[in-house]
Each structure stands twice: as structure tokens, then as C-alpha cells.
Amino acid sequence: MEPYVKQTIENAVAYIEFFHPAHNSLPGDVLAELAQTITEAGNNNKIKVIVLKSGGDRTFCAGASFNELITINDEATGKVFFSGFANVINAMRKCPKFIIGRIQGKTVGGGVGLAASTDYCMATKFAAIKLSELNIGIGPFVVGPAIERKMGLSAMSQIAIDANTFYSAEWAQQKGLFTQVYESTEALDEAVKATAEHLCTYNPAAMVEMKKVFWSGTDNWDGLLAERAATSGRLVLSEFTKEKLKGFK
């Protein structure tokens, strides 16, 4: 199947779905389309609540595209590459609608950042998480603020340092990333639909004001995440990382 970003609207709920055949690892063009789709949904008066989901059954998001990563040869290109997830996170942050995360499977790196940037995140028991960036000589700099905001510095630093380990969905729930963990994708989908449609009965103006409260203190993130993207773009050119990446070509 070809990569895509698509949106469907049902009962005032926008279901925004992304997909890439490589375990939902996202290249720059898909990330740009995803950010734009979220922004447009936030401005659509026919939409009251947004659900962020991915296609396929096994992996929610494997992070950024590795095929693009290994082609980076200069800092400017590196910054643009790592700005992909930054732009999606900022689009989610600025969106005036509640965003529900539907996490059906494993999520890695940037995918953990997407889950952490939703306002209410629901998952299956198969939705283990991992921050693997230190393995190749960079770090979860861009997604770190979103993960720290949701899970706390202690939990974020634990999974960033322990970069080889998948942490269970139950652990992620205990640390505040997931609100509920379900036994199956079918049970998750039923709960997501019921939750989203119930939120549509709330006062939209109240939800807009609550969203501002949830994200208070993040007004500097446009600049902060750009700086973090530049840091990653510089580190990916290091001899350490170049040697690491040779093993993946």
C-alpha cells in the first residue's frame, strides 16, 4: 500500500489516519500533510473532536523514516528532517479541539511524541513504547518536551536512557501517557468512538478554554522544538552516528 494521510468525519468527530508500509515510520512529506490536516481540522466548524490514529494492526508509529535519515549530509537538511515531528506536535498543541489518541500497537521515537501530544490517549495492551534515539548517537530532543510534559522528567529520562527496551502499555498508563489500556483493538475502537462522541456533547467554548489550560507554559515551543531539531540535525552528522548508520544500510 502507498503512504497516506486521510480524514473522515462522523458525528462531528474527525478521524485523522496516517499510514506508511514501513511500520508507519513517517517521511517528511507525510508528516507535513499530517500537520496540515490537523491544523485544518482545528479550523473546521463541522468538527468538534479529533481522533488521531494510524493504519494497520501491529504498529502505531515507528518514528521518523530511516530511509530519509541515512541520506542526511548537512546540518540544514538535518534540521528540516527533524522538524517534521516538531511541526506535527506544534499543530496538535495549537489545535483548539481536543485530540484523542488511538494507539493500537507498538510506538517508537517520534511516535511516542505524537501519543504524548494528544489530549486524551487510549491504547491496547500491545502498545509498548520505546525511545531508541540514543542507540544511533542522537536523542529524543524534539519529542522530549511533549513526553516530559505528559509523563514527567523521571519517566522520560528512564526510557531515553534505556534505549533498547520496550516499556509495556501498562507501564505507560501508570506514568500518565495512556488513560486506558484495552485487551483488543476492537475494544479500543469502541471506547474511542464512545469517548469522542460523548465529548461532542460538551460546550465547544469550554473545551477550547480547557485546551489552553492543558497546554499553558508551552508558548515557546515553536522556537524550542526548532532548536531541538537543529541539535539532532547536527548530531546525525557525527562520526559516531555515521558509523552506526552504516550498519542499517
Descriptive overview:
This is Methylglutaconyl-CoA hydratase. Belongs to the enoyl-CoA hydratase/isomerase family. GO terms for molecular function: catalytic activity. InterPro entries: ClpP/crotonase-like_dom_sf, Enoyl-CoA_hydra/iso, Enoyl-CoA_Hydratase/Isomerase. α3 (75-94) packs parallel to α4 (110-117). A hairpin with a 2-residue loop joins β1 and β2 (13-19). The chain is of the alpha/beta class and 249 residues long. The model has no long low-confidence stretch (mean pLDDT 96). Helix content is 48%, strand content 17%. It has a single domain, classed as 2-enoyl-CoA Hydratase, Chain A, domain 1 (Alpha-Beta Complex), CATH 3.90.226.10. It has eleven helices and nine strands. The strands form two sheets. Strands 1-2-3-5-7-9 form a six-stranded mixed sheet, sandwiched between helices.
CATH class: Alpha Beta
Count, helices: 11
N-to-C CA distance:
23 Å
The spatial strand order of the largest sheet comes to 1-2-3-5-7-9
CATH architecture: Alpha-Beta Complex
Silhouette: globular
The number of strands is: 9
The H/E string reads: EEHEEHHEEHEEHHHEHHHH
CATH superfamily: 2-enoyl-CoA Hydratase, Chain A, domain 1
Uncertain runs with pLDDT below 50, 5 residues or more? none
Family: Belongs to the enoyl-CoA hydratase/isomerase family.
Protein name: Methylglutaconyl-CoA hydratase
GO molecular function: catalytic activity
Pfam families: ECH_1 (PF00378)
Compact summary:
By secondary structure, the protein is α/β, with parallel strands linked by helices.
